[in-house]
## 1
Amino acid sequence: MTKDQIKQEIIRYGNMLIEKGLCTGTGGNISVRLPENNGFMITPSGIPYPAITPEDIVVMDFDGNIIEGKRTPSIERNMHRAIFNARPDVNAIVHTHQNLASAVAATRQDFPPILDAFVAVFGGGLKCAKYASIGTEDLAKNVVEGLGNRNGVLLANHGALCTGKTLDLAFGNCEFLEASAMTYCFAHIIGKPVVLGQDVVEKEAKDLAKRYGQR
Ligand SMILES: [Zn+2]
């Protein structure tokens, strides 16, 4: 994909954040690693998604300098940069304020593995990153720590973040996390959700990855 095509993709998925109810207003942010791996593109700060044009997308290097663009990049640029630096396998990051995952994050509890499919997608439960103020280096550090080698993390009293090899996968992980969070919340209404044991999680994570999908 060319840089222009990636900018279009970021805009398209930004609008989908609103359409799918994963964010409202100017909440959340999206970034994609440059194909040359010398930086990343990120959504601008405080512009409603439907109003964002390709010129508004900011290109930054991994030291935090703006390489291209006149807009102020997302307030969470430190967090995106820290993840790209820590995780060479991650090419796209979607940060949301999705309602139900945020409800779990408001309890500052980790998201336990209560569904087989969750284990297949995320490889086990997800951590809730320690609280720090929006846009700070501390939040960036906590989120990298909470994410570990998974593709999802909760942000205490704030929201969620998913990563992926592509923007499509990162966005899909956010949608899947939200659907799972709904199941988790409802399970609490019905009774006490049973958390899958570590032995089952390890077996399922390995086994399902082999058995599921097209060969
Ligand atoms: Zn946020």
## 2
Amino acid sequence: MKNLIQQLIDEQLQDWELAKSNYAALENIQTKELDLNGHNYKVQFNPTRIASSAAKVDKQSLQARKCFLCSSNLPPQQKGIPFMDKYQILLNPFPIFPKHLTIPNINHTDQLIGGGFEDMLNLAEVIDDYVIFYNGPKCGASAPDHAHFQAGSKGFLPLEKDFNSYAKEPVVELANASLSKLTDEHRSILVIESTQKQAIINLFKTVYDAMEVNEGEAEPMMNLLAWKDKCKWIVCIIIRAKHRPDCFQAEGEKNLLVSPASVDMGGVIITPLEKDFEKITKENIADILKEVSLSAKQCNDLIHRIKLRV
Ligand SMILES: [Zn+2]
């Protein structure tokens, strides 16, 4: 599968002008690095991400547009590789990572993690040179009406690359899987680690069931990152409280077009507009992460509820 994917990438970069020019542009893209409490963050000025960052994800807007993840609407140049008879692996033509894949379900079905979590672990196992990520329907997914994952080459996203440098506080152990809380001032991140797939699935379900669901929404707000490190899976559950920060809507000087998804929460802040790339500070980033994350108090309450269930 890894070879097939590399072949797909090579072919697409040769035959598909849009992908070719966007990956070439990525090589010279402007980035700046910032330090937040000893952790490295990157800001990436990526104009090709404007459609995703500014995507209107209300029901009406979604119904009014053609779904760009349905196979019948893919550009004729875009090719895919089937995965598990349920997904298609595609090259993302608007990359953030040096290798960036989009993995939509073959059916137009809502973006929900409930039925797809195990698939995510399977992806992490089969393409273990990538980190797999999931954006909840109100947590950065630009197609919340079409179930999909994304994958990015390892060694790029700070949360994955520097994972071992983070301190963690143990929460619970459940049948060969451990749950811990990442020590982080701005984000609420729970981490599941195990070498046994079923143990991870069971512990994820325990966490999921203890999380709160906002009225009118179908699942708790979250971004997920999953990858395999040798024989162990690592799953980061980034718990969200808010879709977009206030600065997204703000007028004038205070406006910053930043719409946090897994990648931003994992340490690469995407600014599609140059004015934002230039002015964003580490204080802005700290504020944005804190604003869209579950508060420390609510996270501790959640941990309390999880412990009661184990
Ligand atoms: Zn669709």
